[in-house]
Amino acid sequence: MRVDAGKIFVTVGAGAATMAIAACATDGGDDAVSAAERGRTVAEASCAECHAVAGGAALSPNANAPTFQSFADRPDMTRTALAILLRTPHRSMPNLIVPAEDVDDLAAYLASLRAAG
Question: Cβ atoms within 10 A of the Cβ of 64, count?
Fold first, then answer.
């Protein structure tokens, strides 16, 4: 019986890669939940005066301010796009500077609204 060392190497390598990805996904899941929770806290403290920040909310306190859910539901609004949006000034918003450490958490919270919906 002849054993093909190349096939064994590929099989073992693929198994190791799968286990590494699974480990990262598990760790990232915990971090993602924590980031989303922190983002919700930031949103409630800094954004809720104008925007509806709760998932499923239909109207914001300021009728001209979109809900967080409406941002989350946009198909083009990836987590990266959300982070860019939060770093970009908007004429219709007050001069609000979102601290760098909060941007990713807010993006994670908005992404969690999409996942929940």
Answer: 8
pLDDT reading at 25 higher than 70: no
Q: Which of 11-15, 41-45, 69-73 has the lowest mean pLDDT?
A: 11-15
Give the predicted TM-score (pTM) of the model.
0.66
For residue 60, the domain's CATH number is 1.10.760.10
- Dig out the tokens for 38 from the structure: 């922190």
CA 92 remoteness from chain centre: 24
Closest CA to 69 of 31, 105, 112, 36: 112
Cβ-contact 66, 50 below 8 angstroms = no
Q: What is the DSSP letter of 90?
A: -
* Per-residue exposure over 34-58, b if at least 16 CB sit within 10 Å of its own CB, e if not: ebbebbbebbeebbeebbbbebebe
Decide if pLDDT at 29 tops 60.
no
Domain count, the chain: 1
Domain extent at residue 87? 32-116
